[in-house]
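Lab notes, practical 5.
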Amino acid sequence: MAEPLPTVHVDLEPGWRGGQRQVFLLCTGLARRGHPVTLLARRGGELARRAAAAGLTVAETPVSGGFDPRAVHALLGTVRRHRPAVVGLHSSRSHSVAAAARLLSGAGRPLFVVTRRVDFAPGRDPVNRWKYRRGADGYIAISRAVERELLGAGVPPERVRIVRSGVVPPEVPPDARRELRGELGIADDTPLLGVVAALTDHKGHRYLLDAMPRILGAFPKTVLVLAGAGELRDELEEQARALGIAAAVRFLGYRDDVPRILGGLDLFVLPSKLEGLGTSVVDAMLAGVPVVATRAGGLPELVEDGVTGLLAEPRSPESLAERILRALGDPDLRSRLAERASAVAGERFTADAMVEGTLDAYREFLATSR
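Output from the prediction step:
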């Protein structure tokens, strides 16, 4: 049996989104396997609260702006107290803080390993170039799309490993369909589309709203639910009104009953224009819901077009509408896609696979650093 690997993990983001869920699953998974784990998180944040409730060792730090010297001090203190072999960094802000801490750590410091979950290019300014080339010992990319961005930023290939995100299969309540449709006030035979994603620009909600008039032209009773909070809510609500589709679009806000929402859908849609991997798609696949996604970022690594879902072109309302109409018009196709997707996701994109893959990557980086 391999020796326990002590790690410290850093995520300083304020909310609870896909990245924070991955950090939580990683830390709890490592702890269950007997590895000493400490999490450094934003004071008063949701990740810190959930991690503490799960029995993890949690250190908290105040954070303001993109870079806060107090967080550097907190990280240095946490490393001194817990003496990890690896410090795992899980956001750009955490990477910046750790790059400074790494400079100040001196001899005998742990390895600093960044997990990058977004597929847009790092900044090209001198600070970012230094951060990505010299500010960490290794990188974990959650998809080949993210790996390409890291290599393009000057990270040597030998310092990158791919470990795809994973999820715990959602437990869909048996009455989910009836309950959600009762909440929405719609009939059982109403075509129901859904997106579970933060209301941010890169998730591409506006392209799906632009596709809705065509969808409603073919299936007039269709309803679209958008579960998630974010800075674009007012703008998207105004867009729906301007398109004349407001009655067909329901904004649910942040929800912690995602399995119930998934269980009520006929089709899950992720219209992203940028996407590191897309674990909400994995959730839908494991819940047995057919998926339409885009060819953005790592999504084609999750969805095989015509086999485990349908892929549309990113930033294209026309392409989204065509794929959604194809799925809505063919119940047998939806069943086939959902069945195959559930099997594939259960084999490849589990939380356990993510934890084991991350452990393997950490150990490889440690072995090559000696």
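Observations recorded by the TA: The chain has two domains: 7-166+350-369, 176-348. The first helix runs from residue 18 to 32.
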